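Folds abound. Consider this:
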Amino acid sequence: MVLAGDNRLESMCGVGGRPVSVVSLRVPHGPGRLRIPAAPTVGMAGEALDEQPIQEPAHRECAVLRSLCGGAGIAYSWPMELVVISRGQVAVVSMLHRIQQAIVADGFSFVPASGMADVLTTAGSRDWEGFSRSWDDLGLDAYMADGGRYRRRRHACFSLSRHGVVRKPHQPHYQSRDYNRLNGGIERWFDPVDDAVADHAVLQAVLRTGFDLFDPLTPSEVRPPAWHTEVHQFRIEASPAQPGCPTPEGMHRDGVDWVLVMLIQRENVARGTTTILDAAGRTLGSFTLTAPMDVAVVDDARVFHGVTPVLPVDATRPAHRDVLVVTLRR
């Protein structure tokens, strides 16, 4: 990130938290306050700064847009964009770019719903409630080698490219035992994702966002013309007699290039904490998807991931954890 070495600015930018919308502005002739309008401009009457419009950079990349006199140091955001002004420069960093930077640095990123909602809205998402209700119509996963009957799912395959999103004919899900020692080594045929769900604005926005995130991170010499993309709707049910295991195979890699996991809903469950390990087994991060649209993204070639079992909070009520999993491979 431009200017990342300035700890004061990192704090102002809301690193690790939500970006600010009203910020302090310090200019040579004294402090002032700037309230960000709907169509953002940066400026202050007087000698320090002429009024300057902030333009969104092409392709939502981090970019230094223009030089300003003064040495101001402020930060704010409007949907998707973080704006930093310091030492006479303006930088705009998109949310997608910030996620990509985290993946490059750490092999994964946790994206809170507050940020992901803006990303998906910009990509055309709408009718979240209608989309999330489709998790009430998932078939039982009959392939669980641990004998569990706690997982429900649907599955679909797509092709993602710069030309768009195309659904592929229904096909089995397959993982070798190298990646899934519990359930791998066989073709698993699951109920297909309903057409209405496959075409839904939320899923289409997620798929487009996945392409925009992961395609630029792939070296050009191995970047495919189109990504084989699998979509999984999962519901993990929990009861006092049987905890629900989101990853019964334990810490694992999926055998793909990129993984995106988005929480749809948690109903009456505790735990379900995601842990990320490097290839040597060292813990890189741990977090829990708690709010609808909380997202974890993973560089599957670099890190392992796993999720702790979920338990009912109230033993007398139904308990489940719903997620959407999207994987991309060459």
